[in-house]
Predict the 3D structure of the following.
Amino acid sequence: MVTGANGQLGNELRELSAVYPEYKFYFAGRNVLDISEKNLVLNFFEEHKFDYCINCAAYTAVDKAESERELSFLANATGPAILAEVSGITGTKLIHISTDYVYNGTDHHPLKEDSATGPVNVYGQSKLEGERLVRTENEKSLVIRTSWVYSSYGKNFVKTMMRLLSEREELNVVADQQGCPTYAADLADVIMAFIDADVGGSKLSGIYNYANNGVTTWYDFAVLIGEMIGARCRINPVKSEAYPTPAVRPLYSVLDTSKIRAALDIEIPFWKDSVVRCVERLRGGGLAG
Ligand SMILES: NC(=O)c1ccc[n+]([C@@H]2O[C@H](COP(=O)([O-])OP(=O)(O)OC[C@H]3O[C@@H](n4cnc5c(N)ncnc54)[C@H](OP(=O)(O)O)[C@@H]3O)[C@@H](O)[C@H]2O)c1
């Protein structure tokens, strides 16, 4: 069962489902299942008896969340808590997706699952509360924290940069925030690897960090995209203060992924290689969503 199926990750999972004929997938967008409606979720799960629920539903508008705190908490905390409780009742394993924004961004070494949290914006606070409630309601749940997600679907940094860098002559991009971009297609692969491992009997639970390999800044990320599309636009590195946004962003949110690599025995694609795959796909006419 994939909730929030019309978002970036939901769409990547839908695409990936074609290579998993051994599993029966059920994709539910918000129009079909609002995760904050408890009775709806309970009836739905009791009717279908899902083995796994991958929660891709979230309120992801980081800046808007500052003025829409209640909506952010409804989708990112109340909804996941309902999914976890109902999953416990129906024997469904919940795989919940969280974010690097649960950390406060002042540490300057890769963040482990047990590193101190301390979100600096409402979105991060609502996601941290979601994690807490998921783990309290159903300790068998799995939480995957990821960062800087992009895809050929939906709205994201890669698609915005491809557009702006071809339209403009000059663009300022923040260069003092460090993190790891994550291709939602790679994250979808890893979620399926978790399910395979779980079905195989490993019964994994708890928190795992996942992002593509390597570290970068939004500026270097933009430069790579510009090079790939042959943009003539001049890209200027600027400090976060020069680009004020309603929500403060953590300055450092590099995820340590050693736990997930060891648990699943996987190699994680380097961030640049994944950006190249996504941009090539978009340039090949795959502009979706
Ligand atoms: N995007 C990032 O950079 C990023 C970074 C770190 C972690 N994450 C996490 O990764 C996960 C997947 O993110 P994404 O980028 O795929 O998000 P996305 O593209 O914004 O998709 C989220 C989907 O959830 C739906 N939704 C919102 N509220 C809902 C509700 N109450 N019930 C059911 N569906 C609801 C949205 O529908 P509407 O569009 O109709 O609202 C949207 O289709 C999320 O947990 C997110 O917090 C994302």
